[in-house]
Specification:
Chain A: Its EC number is 2.1.3.2. Chain A: Pfam families: OTCace (PF00185), OTCace_N (PF02729). The complex is a heterodimer of chains A (316) and B (437). With 316 residues, chain A is α/β, with parallel strands linked by helices. Chain A is built from eleven helices and nine strands. The radius of gyration of chain B is 21 Å and the shape is globular. With 437 residues, chain B is of the alpha/beta class. Chain B has twelve helices and 18 strands. Chain B has two domains: 105 residues, Urease, subunit C, domain 1 (Roll); 307 residues, TIM Barrel. Helix content of chain B is 28%, strand content 23%. Classes of the chains: A alpha/beta (316), B alpha/beta (437). At the A-B interface, helix 4 of A face helix 5 of B.
Chain lengths: 316, 437
């Protein structure tokens, strides 16, 4: 079992066998999570700090719970509320926290590349919990785990990713992961929500839901990120829902047993029909949340093993 | 405008390889400096010159002797941000880089938009910089894009061109009027060809690579749109225009057409766009963040070819000092720009060593063309021309250490790069202003 990384900054540097390793371990944490006693001890004695420079409910809660179940001392900091307001730079904040000797730093930041930058300045393991439009690796891993458990495999599937690809780090990480695992990836979006050069990522691109969903095994919906919109990407929410919102009618074009995914939080009636989202036969949205905790436990476990394998850095 | 003390001591440089951009050739020869000017150019490498005319002799030992670089678009951070760069440090960096004339930008804080600020710059330059300094003044007050500056007074005070630099004048009517007025005075406008709204907020060139990195992007078409507008305004107003940086293949055909139509239009490009591409942004290293952003390899190749054919006239360093703090930020939030005065020649010699550009072509774009565009008589290896010269060893290898740069700011993308080429001596008006140890 190999996972040769000091940090988890993105899907891009991971090899397929490393992804499988992580998912195998996550499967075990899913089992653990369904027991009454949910404790593991992989992070016992370690300190985990969550730094979220962007608001998050589910990701932050998921990391916090994952850390606590593994026995880490977990501290969550809402960064908008603290020193950033006082003009402290990202690097200064990182250096300050670094001086407290954390072992794991979980970071979300609105700028692409900011987590990479931070990882160069600290001694601990850094996990990217989402940076700008760049990557959100644990989301792609939890999606992969959900797919693998539902479909029994993580290769040779047709996966349609629909919606605001342009502003989505979730889409980028998922495209990279699904492509690495040799799946057929289709992107479905209006042209204004597709980033330049995306067709060179080994994906099929279409502007039509029917065409995009045809015979898909997995339909992955993305949140229409209203807060990211500079304005004017789509004419109106209702036209968007009409053309790109997922409902039972559009889903008929996918395979009969196709599953519906969404990273949350959902805009019901914008990108997905509320009834469909709640349909336990098709929607795996709640399961994704459960997989999230397990995947994050697995990721932190693997990074902690690498940490423990290194000699302690003693300060003079 | 800088008063450079001319050397009174005649100097004979023998055994040189003369880089002559006018003739488009490199030839062996010698050169006599007298009274701040080139008094004689000899075909013989070691000519007979009497002791009283050439008491001081320098044996170039086969090294290259070229006209000093005229760098259009240098930012010295006076007034306002002297901690980033002063006339003294920029001047020393220039001398060490073979730049004998710095044509300075007005995008300081406050902007250089009045004859009084220009006068301040003139005094600072004279007392502190060892090389010639010629200022560009702002085209609109405060570079706000609303009212034109006192173009006439500023020309009287020594402004050689007018520009709002990277703050593109979005209001085309304002720009049209300023260009019309400037045309009446024969003033040169330096434009930054970008469609300002389309390029707003872009940190990288749109395409596969920027998408992978999740960076906010600008379409390369914004440059073409900006250039199209500026050329149309030249046609409308009769103004003289120099586009500061052409960095994309798509902007080249309109430039070609404008020149073919006889418009008074020239174009430059930057050392960075000639030697780096968007892939260099891979690690989000902010020292590679320049404006406009680095382009695709196809664009880089097209721009090199345009310099070779002469479609692009000028190469500049676009020297832009930034302190450590403004670069130690996430990529999209970090300041743009890189220092280049001292590194430009060795960096561009990469193109010489790779066989992409020969030395006469390089110095046509570095020295001859920018001098001609500004009406200067330097930039040439010719009898009577100012003795602004650079003697360099094109082969000497070294690894660049940014902390050894003379600029106050050390923001070069070439830190740790393997380069070849060392400036041995730089002369301004016949006086040595830099001698390699």
């Amino acid at each position: 079992m190999r996972f040769d990384h000091r940090h988890l900054l993105g899907i891009e540097p991971l090899r397929p066998d490393e992804i499988e390793t992580l998912l195998d371990l996550a499967d075990r944490y899913v089992t653990l999570g369904r027991q009454r006693d949910k404790h593991a001890h992989a992070l016992a004695g370690l300190t985990q700090i969550n730094m979220f420079f962007e608001t998050s409910t589910r990701t932050q809660a998921s990391f916090e719970l994952a850390g606590k179940r593994m026995g880490a001392d977990v501290m969550s900091m809402a960064m908008q509320a603290s020193s950033i307001k006082k003009g402290e730079t990202l690097i200064d904040t990182a250096m300050t926290l670094n001086a407290m000797h954390p072992d794991l730093l979980v970071v979300r930041h609105p700028n692409s590349g900011a987590v990479d930058l931070l990882s160069q300045k600290v001694n601990c393991a850094v996990i990217n919990a989402g940076d700008g439009r760049h990557e959100h690796p644990t989301q792609a891993l939890l999606d992969a785990l959900t797919i693998r458990r539902r479909k029994g495999r993580l290769h040779r599937l047709t996966v349609a990713i629909c919606g605001d690809i342009a502003h989505s780090r979730v889409a980028r990480s998922n495209i990279l992961l699904l492509h690495k695992m040799e799946n057929r990836v289709r992107l479905v979006a209006p042209p204004t929500l597709l980033p330049a050069g995306i067709e060179e990522f080994g994906v099929e691109v279409t502007h039509d839901m029917e065409e995009g969903l045809k015979d898909a095994d997995v339909v992955m919906m993305l949140r229409l990120q209203k807060e990211r919109m500079d304005g004017g990407f789509i004419p109106s929410e209702r036209e968007y829902y009409h053309r790109y919102g997922l409902d039972a009618e559009k889903l008929r074009h996918a395979k009969e047993d196709a599953i519906v995914m969404h990273p949350g939080p959902m805009n019901r009636g914008v990108e997905i029909d509320g009834t469909l989202a709640d349909d336990i036969n098709r929607s795996v949205i709640q399961e994704q949340v459960e997989m999230g905790v397990a995947v994050r436990m697995a990721a932190m476990d693997l990074l902690a093993r690498n940490l423990r394998a290194r000699p302690t850095e003693l300060s003079a | 405008m800088t008063t450079i003390p001319t050397s009174t001591r005649p100097t004979l440089i023998t055994n040189a390889r003369l880089v002559d951009p006018e003739a488009g050739e490199v030839r062996e020869g010698a050169l006599l400096i007298e009274g701040g000017r080139i008094a004689e150019v000899f075909d013989a490498p070691d000519p007979e010159v009497s002791e009283d005319r050439a008491g001081h002799r320098i044996d170039a030992r086969g090294r290259f002797l070229a006209p000093g670089i005229v760098d259009i678009g240098v930012k010295v951070c006076e007034p306002g941000e002297r901690h980033k760069e002063s006339y003294k440090t920029a001047g020393e960096a220039a001398a060490a880089g073979g730049v004998t004339t710095m044509v300075t930008r007005p995008d300081t804080d406050p902007a250089i938009d009045t004859p009084e600020t220009l006068e301040f710059i003139r005094r600072r330059a004279v007392e502190a910089a060892p090389v010639r300094v010629l200022p560009i003044a702002a085209l609109t007050k405060g570079r706000m894009g609303r009212e034109m500056t006192e173009i006439g007074f500023l020309m009287d005070a020594g402004a050689v061109a007018f520009s709002d630099c990277d703050r593109v004048i979005a209001d085309t009517k304002v720009l049209a009027r300023a260009m019309t007025y400037a045309a009446g005075l024969g003033a040169l406008i330096v434009s930054h060809p970008q469609e300002p709204l389309l390029s707003a907020g872009g940190a990288a060139t749109s395409g596969k690579f920027a998408t992978l990195r999740g960076l906010s992007t600008v379409s390369p078409m914004a440059e073409r749109l900006g250039l199209d507008r500026d050329i149309a305004l030249v046609e409308m107003t009769g103004a003289r225009l120099h586009a500061d940086q052409i960095t994309t293949a798509r902007a080249l055909p309109p430039l070609q057409r404008a020149k073919a139509n006889g418009f008074d239009v020239t174009a430059g490009t930057s050392m960075h766009h000639l030697t780096l591409n968007e892939m260099d942004l891979a690690d989000y290293r902010t020292f590679f963040k320049v404006k406009p952003p680095l382009r695709s390899e196809d664009d880089r190749q097209a721009v090199i070819e345009a310099v070779r054919t002469g479609l692009i006239d000028v190469i500049s360093s676009m020297h832009t000092p930034q302190d450590e703090e403004s670069k130690r930020l996430p990529f999209e939030e970090a300041a743009s720009g890189a220092v280049g005065l001292e590194t430009m020649l060795p960096v561009l010699l990469r193109l010489y060593h790779s066989g992409e550009l020969d030395l006469p072509t390089l110095f046509r774009a570095l020295s001859l063309n920018p001098a001609r565009r500004l009406g200067l008589d330097c930039g040439r290896i010719a009898k009577g021309a100012p003795a602004d010269l650079v003697l360099f060893d094109a082969d000497k290898p070294f690894i660049l250490d940014r902390f050894k740069l003379r600029s106050k700011s050390k923001n070069t993308p070439f830190d740790g790069a393997r380069l070849q080429g060392k400036v041995l001596t730089t002369w301004v008006a016949g006086a040595p202003v830099h001698e390699a140890s």
